[in-house]
Amino acid sequence: VQLQASGGGLVQTGGSLRLSCAGSGRTFSRHVMGWFRQAPGKEREFVAAIRWNGSDAQYTDSVKGRFTISRDSTKDTVYLQMNSLKPEDTGVYYCAARWGGISGLASEYGYWGQGTHVTVSS
């Protein structure tokens, strides 16, 4: 499984961005997909994840009601729609894939994209 994240950029507080993660590989569509982020000087943290069939999604508390994770199996792509962005959302966003159920632990994801930078200015 190979992952390619894109869509990051610079946005003002209250703005929106949509991140994309294009996957490839024969079994990509059967993987749980997650988004993580890492702010400067901080550890990588869980943002959201979605089951392979889109039947369930989970979010970290700080993004609930603002971010939406979705996937388009026809395009082998997972999205993270980010609305009402705040400066504390700034960081490098990574998409990741794993077999099994949804997990918020980065160590349980075996495949990672290269990261895309998100900067939210105040």
What does this structure look like?
By secondary structure, this protein is mostly beta strands. 0% of the residues lie in helices and 50% in strands. The chain contains no helices and eleven strands. Strands 2, 4, 5, 6, 9, 10 and 11 form a seven-stranded mixed β-sheet that branches. A four-stranded antiparallel β-sheet has the order 1-3-8-7, with no helix packed on it. β4 and β5 (45-50) form a beta hairpin. The radius of gyration is 13 Å and the shape is globular.
Secondary structure topology:
Layout: E1 2-6, E2 9-12, E3 17-24, E4 32-38, E5 45-50, E6 57-59, E7 67-72, E8 77-82, E9 91-98, E10 111-112, E11 116-121
Parallel strand pairs: 2-11
Antiparallel strand pairs: 1-3, 3-8, 4-5, 4-9, 5-6, 7-8, 9-10, 9-11
Tally of DSSP helical segments: 0
Average pLDDT confidence is 94
Query: Structural class, judged by helices and strands?
Result: mainly beta
Order of helices and strands: EEEEEEEEEEE
Weakly predicted, low-confidence segments:
none
Shape field = globular
**First-last Cα distance:** 37 Å
Task: Tally the beta strands.
Answer: 11
Q: Tell me the strand percentage band.
A: over 45%
Main sheet record: 7 strands, mixed
Radius of gyration: 13 Å
Helix content: under 10%
Concise synopsis of the structure shown:
About 0% of the residues lie in helices and about 50% in strands. It has strands at about 1-5, 10, 15-25, 30-40, 45-50, 55-60, 65-70, 75-80, 90-100, 110, 115-120.
